[in-house]
Amino acid sequence: MIQDAARAGRARGTTPRESDDAQRRAELGGFLRARRNELSRSEVGLPPRTRGGDVGLRREEVSYLSGVSGTWYTWLEQGRDINPSRQVVDAVARTLRLDASAHSYVLALLGYSSPHPQQVPPTHDAPPSLQRLLDSWADPAFALAPDWAVLAWNDAYEQLYPGIATAADDDRNLLWLVFTDPYVRALLPDWERTSRRFLSEFRAETGPRLGDPAHGMLVERLSAASAAFRAGWESRDVQRFASRERLFQHPDVGLLHLEHHQLALSDHPEIHVVAYTPMPETDAAERLARLCAL
């Protein structure tokens, strides 16, 4: 079917790329028109129309409220071959009261990246659905807040690291535990490398929070408690997360070869789920089973 569409496009004198662009422009026009026709006039400070009541805006009203030329906005809805700037798209999105999903959709149709997410304050409350998800997994898993506070975990993770259940609320932070808990240091045979890797990932993720007082307090606490953290923080290493092999030297079942994964929840993107799975061609699955049986 794709080849047939390409041949049809060539017959009309258009390339597949031009055909795709035309479809996206047409979808954009239809989408903006639908949102304009369903928007409440009172929501944007306009009086009801004599006919039609409070629902629906005219094109010229959208263009005026957005600070955009009426002709330019009309061309947008008509799917004309124009290239609106990011500022124009953002202004129209604000006028039409598009939520984050709809705003991202419009930007994607025009080839722009999604809007920057609003900074979400760190939460220390895990949704019940998240705890149920973790409990359904046999392998160790836990959830992290934006400030790396551990929000929830499953039984397998508690077997791997029993201290997670007894840590004080203020100390139940992954970085704090890695840099201050002797049990964690003994659990990680490559602690020096792993702790520095965690620190570089933490810095990469929390850069936008550098002005947050809570972030500053956490860094100050860790700097005072750990010379290793202080040295690593001053190095200013930054690294994005990547799935990788992790080693754990557990006192009861010995060396565990696990793979470290990180996932984001669609409905709570500020929360990251960390999951450990057995590395293939190792005895990690058997050792994990023994650990959970304990």
Number of helices: 15
Categorize the overall geometry. elongated
Number of self-contained structural domains: 2
Give the proportion of residues in helices.
40-55%
Question: How does this model look, in words?
Answer:
The protein has about 290 residues and is α+β, with helices and mostly antiparallel strands. Helices cover about 50% and strands about 10% of the residues. Strands 2-1-5-4-3 form a 5-stranded antiparallel β-sheet. α5 (about 85-95) packs antiparallel against α6 (about 100-110). The longest helix has 23 residues, at about 15-40. It is elongated, with a radius of gyration of 26 Å. The N and C termini lie far apart (about 55 Å). Residues about 1-5 have low confidence and may be disordered.
Short summary of the structure?
With 294 residues, the chain is an alpha+beta fold. It has 15 helices and five strands. It has a five-stranded antiparallel sheet.
Q: Key terms for this structure?
A:
Beta-Lactamase; 5 strands; 434 Repressor (Amino-terminal Domain); disordered N terminus; 294 residues
Write the layout of secondary structure elements.
Elements: H1 2-11, H2 16-38, H3 59-66, H4 70-78, H5 86-95, H6 100-109, H7 128-135, E1 141-144, E2 150-153, H8 155-160, H9 163-166, H10 174-180, H11 182-187, H12 191-206, H13 213-225, H14 227-235, E3 244-250, E4 254-264, E5 272-278, H15 284-293
Antiparallel strand pairs: 1-2, 1-5, 3-4, 4-5
